[in-house]
């Protein structure tokens, strides 16, 4: 798919990010937003006003449809391989007045020494906008092209190079795991909701445990989702070995 190849080039040799516009309809995005806001009391507080709602896949089928969106998966497979795995899936809510987050790169890069590879990419993050995102309501700060610096972060350089991402409800901002980024302050009077999805190469050990998933959930999960879930790494590794050395 041409779109996936363009996205891969942007993430690796370009600015380190790419936006898939209109990945879902605004009405669908609003349904997700309403669900997340209705379950905030079950979320994990990262810092005052910054709340993550985890374990989304078993909560409602609409989250499976997000993770297995064909356009999104096409990019993940183009960048990370056909046996790429789902590394995490959560919803982030920034309440009005929340503080600025920590400047960082994504796992596994922050656990590695400097000199980290841009290619092959090891991780891709998705910030899926469930409402219009602006500089006012907490559009994430990113430093374009910073994946090429091959180092964790440089605060002074980030301040000079960074700008905020913006977009419409249903747009998905995808970034290379090495891209420097920072959660912004929500200066508006409404919560800002986004779904965060991370995909990784098969060879990367998940940062967080996913599951255990119930038999009922696994029995109704789509084949696309089962391929993504890190539930049988030995079988996936064996398949990769056979493919590479047959």
Could you walk me through the main structural features you see in this protein, from its secondary elements to its overall organization?
The chain is an alpha+beta fold and 246 residues long. The chain has a single domain (2-245), classed as Jelly Rolls, CATH 2.60.120.620. 30% of the residues lie in helices and 20% in strands. It has helices at residues 2-12, 26-38, 61-67, 70-80, 155-161, 215-220, 223-228, 233-245, and strands at residues 17-20, 44-47, 50-53, 85-94, 123-129, 141-142, 163-164, 172-176, 181-182, 192-200. The strands form two sheets. A seven-stranded antiparallel beta sheet has the order 1-8-5-10-4-3-2. It has a three-stranded antiparallel beta sheet with strand order 7-6-9, with no helix packed on it. A hairpin with a 2-residue loop joins strand 2 (44-47) and strand 3. Helix 1 (2-12) packs across helix 4. The longest helix has 13 residues, at 26-38. The chain starts with a helix and ends with a helix.
CATH architecture: Sandwich
SSE pattern, N- to C-terminal: HEHEEHHEEEHEEEEHHH
| Beta strands, count | 10
The SS-based structural class is alpha+beta
